[in-house]
Amino acid sequence: MAELRCLVLVLGDQLDLDAAAFDGFDADVxxxxxxxxxxxxxxxxxxxxxxxxxxxxxxxxxxxxxAEGRPLHYTxxxxxxxxxxxxxxxxxxxxxxxxxxxxxxxxxxxxxLQAIKAAAASHGLPLxxxxxxxxxxxxxxxxxxxRSRKSLRMEYFYREQRRRHGVLMQGDEPVGGQWxxxxxxxxxxxxxxxxxVPPRAVFRxxxxxxxxMALVNTRFAGHPGRLDSFAWPVTRARALQSLxxxxxDRLPLFGxxxxxxxxxxxWLYHAHLSAALNLKxxxxxxxxxxxxxxxxxxxxxxxxxxxxxxxxxxxxxxxxGVYWTQMPGYxxxxxxxxxxxxxxxxxxxxxxxxxxxDALAQTLEHGYANHIQRLMVTGLYTLxxxxxxxxVHAWYLAVYVDAxxxxxxxxxxxxxxxxxxxxxxxxxxxxxxxxxxxxxPHCKACRYDPAQRSGDSACPFTTLYWDFLMRHQAALxxxxxxALQVKNVARLTDGQKQAVGERAAAIRRGEVGAEAGLARHA
Length: 522
Fold this sequence. Notes:
Layout (H helix, E strand, L loop, with lengths): L5 E4 L20 E6 L3 H4 L5 H20 L4 E4 L10 H12 L3 E5 L4 H13 L4 E4 L8 H9 L6 H12 L3 E2 L2 E2 L32 H13 L16 H19 L19 H5 L5 H13 L5 H25 L27 H13 L4 H15 L3 H11 L5 H12 L16 H7 L20 H12 L1 H4 L6 H5 L6 H15 L14
Parallel strand pairs: 1-2, 1-4, 2-3, 4-5
Antiparallel strand pairs: 6-7
Helix pairs in contact: 2-7, 3-4, 6-11, 8-10, 8-11, 10-11, 11-15, 12-13, 13-17, 14-15, 17-20
């Protein structure tokens, strides 16, 4: 056997045949390393849909590597002697394969990066970490952008990237004469509902995916979630079909209804592409190009196309930059000193709040919720309840099929929970139950009244909104964007404040909102 020159490490979120890690790859002297390990499903209580998504996509990518003639050393989850963690498995395989060096594209998780660095160092092996070309912006470029500004704001970063990459531009000016069409993208469905929404792209699991599903149901039987309706794209070909279906069927109305919700319908006009993007089955450049072409061809209105591209070229790139320039300390931030435990029913969906019950049920069934459900339903509730942000982070990382830490952590801890004190967003996103009433019909089927802030029928969202303002009044009063909301607290009498506080305390004790008899997951 010839000496192994390079062992190219491929992680579960790096499924790209054109990754920089393969530059200069020589099948005669190089090989690829991949490993399925239980530790990646247990360091957080990973849901069955999330574990199945990663493992099925990895096994299909292994087939693609073999079809390309790239030698592969692949350890399955159920392989005898599986070491159980990425670091331990890598160390065992280094001893067995004796490579001269390790090569990889930059990972998307600080924890994983440190583990791989330590494994390489323990064997005295060079570790060549290459730029992840999947993104429009490198971490160094984002750091330079951050250094040039007193404070970070996504909108300015987004405009900079539009100019730099010539996306939706007409010379030096944005197409349509404005950068942001958010004001046109906030409609609810109205009493008639969403009507006949085009179906999402659904992929019946093939034999390899069914094999993974059976393994996950056995190996992680006690983990949350279900696989009965698992239909995500786990190959590049299927991911491209998902992209085509979105551009063709749902992009035209994506913008108008991107903040709308409807009970029992998680898919609506959303893209459902984030998992394929985050596992690198899709490249963001081809996604942005497809959306831009849809506008150019007259297929989709500018407001929808701009709103969608902002999520990819703007927000997605921005959160990655925040993650890598703020870690590792970012993970421990807790600007609001939130210490409440996450309610046990977040893992089961057993709540009598209609909007949360719907969002949690679909999350556990599909490993998916749209961005407004994550920010303004589940995230809004935990923020105002005062849940410790690290527990909220662990839940989001565990339950969603698109969850990789670089994108999940800043969105959860920063944007949703305001635990970073304003790095990601300029203010906490808080609202009463009236917001949910405006954007969905959930409140009609709920026992709680969003107009009431105290009393037995008061919506917990509304109670917690006022309680949040009272608890953080001094700090929030210094924020210009929160000043008007904070001033409203002064309208409350002492008796009204006491009633809100008592109701909020009952909610935190689990006496409101949860079905009876629930035990907290340990």
